[in-house]
Amino acid sequence: MSPVKVFGHPMSTNVARVLLCLEEVGAEYELVTVDFLAGEHSSPQHVQRNPFGKIPAFQDGELVLFESRAIAKYILRKYRTADLDLLAESSGIEESAMVDVWTEVEAQQYYPAISPVVFECIIFPVMRGAATNQIVVDESLDRLRGVLGVYEARLEKSRYLAGDSVSFADLNHFPFTFYFMATPYASLFDEFPKVKAWWEGLMARPAVQRVCKNMPTEF
Amino acid sequence: MAPMKLYGWAVSPWMARVLVCLEEAGAEYELVPMSRSGGDHRQPEHLARNPFGEIPVLEDGDLTLYQSRAIARHILRKYKPELLRSDNLQESAMVDVWVDVDAHQLEPIIRPVVFNVIIKPFTGSDCDQDLVDESIEKLKKTLEVYEARLSTSKYLAGDFVSLADLTHFSFMRYFMATQYAEVVEAYPHVKAWWEALLARPSVKKVMAGMPPDFGFGSGNIP
Predict the structure, then answer these.
(1) Are residues A73 and A99 in the same domain?
(2) Burial B167-188, CB ≥16 within 10 A → b, else e
(3) Which pTM does this prediction carry?
């Protein structure tokens, strides 16, 4: 079986999402660098794999995929075992529904609140030399505080977001939270002890540690 | 077994996304109407169901679910898994790809157009025409990808209809009621795919509860 291929850059949040799932399942893979700072994601060669010209793209034999969450789910299904079912699809209809709920919550509630802080404090300054828009940051932090309040209540009742076992729902939070912790606002998580402990638990996972190695913490 | 309960207002595109899946699945359900203008979704009774204070919410026995795509997947997994292609690794991946394309590429473009062109005039706010114009330019580029896809594939995930197609209906319904529908209709395969969706009995039934002005014109605002 030839290794699967991920096309992207290890610094990219959406690429990191996919790499984390590959590391969690112990799959053999090859990361083919797409130099997005040099505009390689817009090249005809890359657009053939991801018609929206974004990273990551993914290839497994003849199957070519894009959209990081779709890629990640394919990986978690393909390499699923009796002991490792991060989508809980073989557990039961209720368990997999909860994974879906909290996976959507990450995409639709958490990400819109946390990502502007990462964009304003790290990504725009590094990639465009832009100044941080403090109004956007402050509004986002307020929104994030509200979201983390909901997470705190959830994690008081449940060891992980979707239930008592770690799942794709938890892992999805890694990339943007990792970079958020490199902004001046990391201490926001101190206000939410259960959330903070959950985050530290994720960071301690060997697969997370392996992916972190290729993600800068200083800019 | 008690029928499932779906809480919300039928004009909501998030609600309608779920309603289409319920109808496709032929599942028994009860619609529990809520009032948006009355702030029902912010009341403690609803926050106990969905701490994010949003609709739709599905109650299925002991399970309470929110986030429209999570609800949709649950319904199909339970009643019509062929619309997720869960038994086929490659096909289920293609379904997931195009569900996410709608969520992360298309909806973020058409939602502000719908909001500015349809809703704002009724709520007394000014339409942000610059944002609408920018969105239409982005839409054209995105539709080129859809057109290329639908030129070689009958439906988005393959030659089979799936959640990937159904999930597009509800926001597009409103976009296609604006003067910008012609932008979509300029792409022949996208147009044909859209018309095929509109012909589905489930879609016709749900659309009947979705007046193009969200009910503002008739004073029937949820």
Answers:
(1) no
(2) bbbbbbbbbbbbebeebbeebe
(3) 0.97
